[in-house]
Write a structure and sequence with these properties.
Elements lengths: L14 E2 L2 H11 L6 E5 L5 H8 L4 E5 L6 H7 L6 E4 L8 H5 L4 E6 L5 H8 L6 E9 H7 L10 H9 E9 L4 E2 L6 E8 L10 H12 L12 H6 L13 H14 L1
Parallel strand pairs: 2-3, 2-5, 3-4, 5-6
Antiparallel strand pairs: 1-8, 6-9, 7-9
Length: about 260
């Protein structure tokens, strides 16, 4: 079915066609009968079908491409625990959708917006058991990157502040239709037990980290007040890429205290 459907480049679509890889990803999702699962980007339903076979309580499938709606509806018409949401992920209020329940958020994310979706999931952190996503390997490497490495970026710091990030496996292009030009990876993001930044300050913290990573080679003293740097115990000559996640958290807290 996935082979007949013509993917749209503009939507960053690459359909996963390897049964073995699909089963492995769903093993990581560890479907339980009481689970409420939200899948971002159903496509023609390869991952969806394997999740449904394992009988979660409910699976919400978010899909923007109206061309696949008839395929999905026909394929899963016998599953009473599947609900198709015909919207863009960014137009869905997951909070309203799941009514205070905890969810597993999963999916083979479109490459062109994967980073934006990953960052957005942090704002639902109080509702998430964990995320399992297939993304571009290059983006996955940013999620687990350490300071002083090329991959270490705003995304590394922001997501590692709130999640334990795990690189689970690489997936070569041959397992997709059409094969992407890049290697993919499966990652797991598990919310930290204690959030170092409260949910209501997350937006402010996101901007703070983003601003520091603008012109990442510039010394911090050109972007952050020296009083804040000194009080947080950060060298005035340090650069964004040298700071640990804990340094960013400390800087943000000191800034909040001094304002």
């Amino acid at each position: 079915m996935g082979r007949k459907f013509k993917t749209k480049k503009s939507l960053g679509q690459h359909l996963l066609i390897s049964e073995g890889v699909i089963k492995k990803i769903v093993d990581y999702i560890d479907v339980k009968n009481e689970d409420i699962i939200v899948e971002v980007g159903v496509g023609t339903g390869q991952l969806t079908e394997e999740i449904l076979k394992r009988a979660p309580k409910i699976l919400y499938g978010i899909e923007i491409d109206e061309r696949v709606y008839p395929i999905i509806e026909e394929r899963f018409k016998d599953y009473g625990n599947f609900i198709l949401i015909k919207k863009d992920y960014f137009d869905v209020d997951i909070r309203n959708l799941i009514n205070g329940n905890k969810i597993k958020l999963v999916g083979n994310l479109p490459y062109n917006i994967a980073s934006l979706i990953l960052i957005d999931t942090a704002f639902y952190i109080d509702l998430i058991k964990f995320n399992i996503f297939m993304i571009q390997k290059e983006v996955a490497e940013k999620l687990v990157a350490k300071p002083r490495t090329k991959a270490y970026s705003f995304m590394s710091v922001f997501l590692q502040t709130f999640f334990e990030t795990d690189y689970l496996m690489s997936v070569p292009p041959r397992f997709f239709s059409p094969p992407p030009k890049v290697v993919s990876a499966v990652i797991k993001l598990t919310p930290k037990k204690e959030l170092p930044i409260p949910l209501e300050e997350m937006k402010e913290y996101k901007k703070f980290v983003s601003d520091i990573f603008t012109n990442r080679r510039k010394m911090l003293r050109s972007k952050v007040d020296t009083e804040i740097l000194e009080k947080a115990g950060v060298k005035l000559t340090a650069r964004a890429e040298e700071l640990s996640v804990d340094d960013f958290i400390r800087l943000f807290k000191v800034k909040k205290e001094l304002i």
